[in-house]
Design brief:
Oligomer: single chain
Shape: globular
Number of helices: 5
Radius of gyration: 15 Å
Number of domains: 1
Helix content: 25-40%
Order of helices and strands: EHEEEHEEEHHHEEE
Strand content: 25-35%
Distance between the termini: 35 Å
CATH superfamily: 7,8-Dihydro-6-hydroxymethylpterin-pyrophosphokinase HPPK
Number of strands: 10
Length: 171
Amino acid sequence: MTMIYLSLGSNVERHKHIAAGLDALARMLGELQISSVYESKAVGFEGSNFFNLVVGAETVLSIAELSENLKRIEDNNGRKRNGPKFSPRTLDIDILTYGDFVGIESGIELPRAEITKNAFVLLPMAEIAPHAKHPQLLQTYAQLWSEYDQSSQQLWVIDFMWSGRKISQAQ
């Protein structure tokens, strides 16, 4: 079993698509570690605010198999792949890390660069895996978050219910 971390994001029917993504991931991977759900402004384009979170799980799937399954989940949630890179999303699921793998596999570069570039990825990562180490930088996610320019991107925790339980609560 390999420990993986995935980021989820949506700015179109956000509650519906994040919940559907979590449902599909739980069916595929079993037990999930789930961060709080954060709301943030769109990055790279003008658009509605996003909901973002990070989940951790263990898998026996290869990187290619995992990627195929994640694309299928996105497609089942109305993901359009012919638009610009920075555009509204019904559901976006990215592999952040796959164990300690560093490199390119099946066209996917891991660990994903967004981990250290975007607060909406790094903060939830530091929340659910504070003592885990970034496989390339070899610093913990808590250390990386403490060194991050936290004024560069605004984000805030929102109330979010999934599967009959509150997974995040606004402060």
